[in-house]
Amino acid sequence: MTDLSSIKADARARAFARRKDAWGQGHPAQAGLLMQVLEAHRGRPLAGYLPMRTEIDPLPAMVEAVRHGPVGVPVTPRIGLPLTFRRWTPGCEMLDGGFGTQIPASGEEVAPEVLIVPLVAFDRQGGRLGYGGGFYDRTLAALRAQGPMTAIGFAWAAQEDEGLPLEETDAPLDVIVTESEIIRP
């Protein structure tokens, strides 16, 4: 395997296996450190994600953040476009958003200044390996072009990988938070 897409596919497969193992161990206070990081951003528009499968769960931090300002969740567009974010509140009516996601049935668009980013693998330099669609890379590039933006990767510590196959278009993270550590590249 010499082409980058094959190398990335192998890296994702290994990271998914590590993530599944971490998820299976069940850590009760997953979002505690994420809440600490978000305290410095209270009142700024925030977007997070609704966890799927074995993703680490940011919902406790998002519920806390709603008390201080708008919180959005991603709406997945057509391939090749950046994400948009619809305002979310705990218990709001949800619809199928495609790709196995849920989105609020109604609500205005949120332009986040702080973004909690799901990922498959990360490194200590702020590198992120995503799912392969480029949605977050395009989204981070567009948001950063509009002004100050903080990208917080949220993952299990087991998802760390120092040998990530990254490209120039792979948007870096400003902070990485795991269930056990805050990493500031």
From TrEMBL:
Record keywords: ATP-binding, Ligase, Magnesium, Metal-binding, Nucleotide-binding
Coiled-coil ranges per UniProt: none
InterPro entries: FTHF_cligase (IPR002698), FTHF_cligase-like_sf (IPR024185), NagB/RpiA_transferase-like (IPR037171)
Cofactor (UniProt): Mg(2+)
GO molecular function: 5-formyltetrahydrofolate cyclo-ligase activity; ATP binding; metal ion binding
A Gene Ontology biological process term: folic acid-containing compound biosynthetic process
Reaction(s) catalysed (UniProt annotation): (6S)-5-formyl-5,6,7,8-tetrahydrofolate + ATP = (6R)-5,10-methenyltetrahydrofolate + ADP + phosphate
EC number of this enzyme: 6.3.3.2
Family: Belongs to the 5-formyltetrahydrofolate cyclo-ligase family.
UniProt-recorded name of the protein: 5-formyltetrahydrofolate cyclo-ligase
Organism (species): Rubellimicrobium roseum
Lineage, broadest ranks: Bacteria, Pseudomonadati, Pseudomonadota, Alphaproteobacteria, Rhodobacterales
